[in-house]
Amino acid sequence: MNPIQAARELGKAIQADDRFKAYFTAKEKNDGDEALQNLIGEFNLQRENLSMELSKAEGEKKQGKIDELNEKMRGTYAEIMSNENMRAYSGAKAEFDQMLNGVNQIVAMCCEGADPETCEPAAKGCGSGCGSCGGCGG
Q1: CA atoms within 13 A on the CB side of 19
Q2: 13, 27, 66, 89: most buried by Cβ count inside 10 Å?
Q3: Which pLDDT tens digit goes with each residue over 102-112?
Q4: Is the dihedral of CA 32, 33, 34, 39 positive or negative?
Q5: How far apart are CA 125 and CA 118, in angstroms?
Q6: Other CB atoms closer than 10 Å to residue 112's CB: what's the count?
Q7: Is-contact 76 86, C-beta < 8 A?
Q8: Which residues touch 43 (CB under 8 Å, ≥6 apart)?
Q9: Residue 124 confidence (pLDDT)
Q10: Are 76 and 39 in contact (CB under 8 A)?
């Protein structure tokens, strides 16, 4: 089997994994939640307005407006994160990302000469210093 064929097989294995299925299902629900998508659009607009206010020259910035925009953003963010679909999506994405990071670490270690049968990805939050670690990239 060549590397491209192996990558295709890996892709099939990833898509068969329960973490991928949970992530993909949660993403579809998230994307289909019109109220949530409206909140996300509102949040992005608020962030853009804040960015424009912050980019003004020092004499033109209005601290009251900056504070008001920050407060609105915090409220909108809290609404977004309290949405059931967003909570499910965030949890599923975190688990899927952790699995995908492990896969990427193994591939990277193998590209550096590690034994594919024995190399192990770094544990999440391994707690050791990262200076000599080739694992997570953190």
Answers
A1: 14
A2: 89
A3: 999 999 999 99
A4: negative
A5: 20
A6: 9
A7: no
A8: 73, 76, 77, 80
A9: 65
A10: yes
Sign of the Cα torsion 18, 24, 29, 30 reads: positive
Other beta carbons within 10 angstroms of residue 54's beta carbon come to 11
Contact 14, 20 (CB under 8 A): yes
Joined together, the tokens standing for residue 13 give 């294995």
CB-based contact 69:49 (threshold 8 Å): yes
Mean per-residue pLDDT, 114-125: 85
**Separation between Cα atoms, residue 50 and residue 52, nearest integer Å:** 5
Helix, strand, coil shares of the chain, percent, nearest 5, are: 70, 0, 30
Residue identified by tokens 């059931």 is 84
List, for residues 49-77, the tens digit of each pLDDT value: 999 999 999 888 889 999 999 999 999 99
CA–CA distance from 60 to each of 12, 51, 54, 57, 121 (Å)?
A: 55, 13, 9, 5, 51
- Chain-wide mean pLDDT for the chain? 90
